[in-house]
Amino acid sequence: MKKISDLDIQQIIGWVLRLGVIISMSVVFIGGCFYWYRHSGETASYSKFVGVPDFVHSPSGIWNGILTLRGRAIIQAGIILLIATPVIRVLFSLIGFLLEKDWLYTAISLLVLGIIIASALTGHAG
Amino acid sequence: MSVAVLTLIVLAGSYVAGLVGSLTGLGGGVVIIPLLTLLLNVNIHYAIGASLISVIATSSGSAAAYVKEGITNIRLGMFLEIATTIGAMAGAMLALHIQTSVIAVIFGVILIFSAFMSLKPKKEQIHPPKSQWAEKLKLNSSYPVNDQTVSYGVQNVGGGFFMMLFAGVISGLLGIGSGALKVVAMDGIMRIPFKVSTTTSNFMIGVTAAASAVVYLQRGYIDPGLSMPVVIGVLLGALTGSKILVKASSSKGLRWVFAVIVTFLAGQMIYNGLNHRI
Fold this sequence. Notes:
The complex is a heterodimer of chains A (126) and B (278).
Chain A: H1 6-39, H2 59-67, H3 71-99, H4 103-121
Helix pairs in contact in A: 1-3, 2-3, 3-4
Chain B: H1 3-24, H2 29-39, H3 44-69, H4 74-95, H5 100-119, H6 132-136, E1 141-145, E2 148-152, H7 157-174, H8 179-189, H9 194-219, H10 224-247, H11 252-274
Antiparallel strand pairs in B: 1-2
Helix pairs in contact in B: 1-2, 1-10, 2-3, 2-11, 3-9, 3-10, 4-7, 4-9, 5-11, 7-8, 7-9, 8-9
Pfam families (chain A): DUF1634
Transmembrane segments (chain A): 12-37, 73-92, 104-125
Keywords (chain A): Membrane, Transmembrane, Transmembrane helix
């Protein structure tokens, strides 16, 4: 097998990012269609901060919402996929550096992933 | 306002924001937040949440194209992401505790600074490697210019890292890419070629925004009904902008017009913030 180079990693990262954006935006768009179909006549107001509806605020709520074709649950799933895209990109860089045996940058990629995970875990606290 | 009307207005406004953001190099976030808060009376927390999501979409989309051209310095990006993600996490936490009017004022100040930075002429600079740290961290690299490979050195690694920490805090606090601050760190402090700094900054923005988005998501700042038209509109606007940029060679007059508009918006944000209307 040919040795993996920086250029290969760049190509792979480019594809990961492109696919992530295309997939997540499609999901957001589909969810938007359902949301429009079911709620377009209702009144919307965002002037006061009241958080988000319960069914889009937990993984189980979003999952149930997708199964019952609730537009906002599908949109939120698309948004989570979009947020995951750059994180998956870091994961692929990590694998790339690992295959190149670049231990310093394997460690740096791990550190960046760790910070994002820490941020996710402390989201409710702070 | 009905969901239908609001969605269409936000979609159209976000398209314009994405277009302007891409043409000026300011990014869609800095235009969409004043639009939502000043014109549509959207709470700034929702506006920041929606903007942050659109920032991830546009930066990932354009980074995909840049990265394949081989201009992006991936090692430099990864290394500085340590600073921006720590900063972004801190910024998002901070946003939960400080008053919205204070956020509005900080936003206005950063907006004026970004507009000013977008007017500064960009000079391509190539410096030979001399920093020990850059050598140890393998940050010195090369990039293609007209079929030739040009090598460059990275300087003042510590200073750049510190500036990136600040850029991360601002990004997490305001829900923008803070591209202008990243360019200060890379062009001004680390002295790397302009083309490399722009693409590398873009490469880092997605990861930085993701680090604060995970906090916002759990806090209920990211509303799907509002974020949907924002993210679709900004992304389409940015795509149109990149198509126009390829055709138009010089856009100096355009930059001035936008800088004046953006400065006006910034003034409104500061004024409303000081009067506690936001």
